[in-house]
Amino acid sequence: VNLRRGYQKKEKEYTQAWSVSNEPLCKLCQKPCKGNNAKEPEYFEDLFCDLACYEDYRTRASSRFIRQELFQIEHGICTNCKLDCHQLATRLRPLPLERRREYVNKVAPELFARKNLLETLVNDPTEGNAWHADHIIPVFRGGGECRLENMRTLCVACHADVTAAQCVERRLIRSKARKQLKDTLNELRNNPNQTNLLADNRKETDCSEEEEEEDELLVEVPGSSYSIDQKISPAS
Ligand SMILES: [Zn+2]
Ligand SMILES: [Zn+2]
Known about the structure:
Blueprint: E1 2-4, E2 11-13, H1 51-74, H2 85-92, H3 97-107, H4 109-112, H5 115-123, E3 131-135, E4 151-155, H6 156-190, H7 192-195, H8 207-217, H9 225-229
Antiparallel strand pairs: 1-2, 3-4
The protein binds zinc ion (2 copies).
């Protein structure tokens, strides 16, 4: 199909699968596209069954791109422990399974110690199972943009360490926020002038309802780059 992408004037060619019953299929999930423009797509978005698939596709495409760019600069060498992950994956591929474990034990004991990462890598020695593109400033501290300056190569073991450390930090931030919210609510309740700001029914609110409200405010955002990328080409 020939179509325009976004506001570009030039037409570009894209491939899209069609079913035997002559229905266009989503470029990501391969389900039939039911949109108004599906049969005569005008924009790139029209090649997807819905906007969620389109966004997902774009995120994956850009994380692939980031990995490629990063590889050009850092060549798959972990910026933390200096493990050459590209070489590791390349050397593992021709080896039989048992020899792969031995090899990892020899050149990357830290990785060998993490059994789940080890098994993933030895069963499928791809670059993506050896190193990840990591956000230097993490997403939750505002480093969501996948700009190359904010990315670094980390071996899967170092990446797991960094992610674990960030989890602790995030939990700390959350519990601080929770405490602050509690204090604010208590203050409002204890101050008669300001209590009016809260609706009358707030006075009867019991603890369980209060908990619920807090959880709502502090709910985790599901679309963090960790959750998306882990599936296809890890880049977070
Ligand atoms: Zn889809
Ligand atoms: Zn490392």
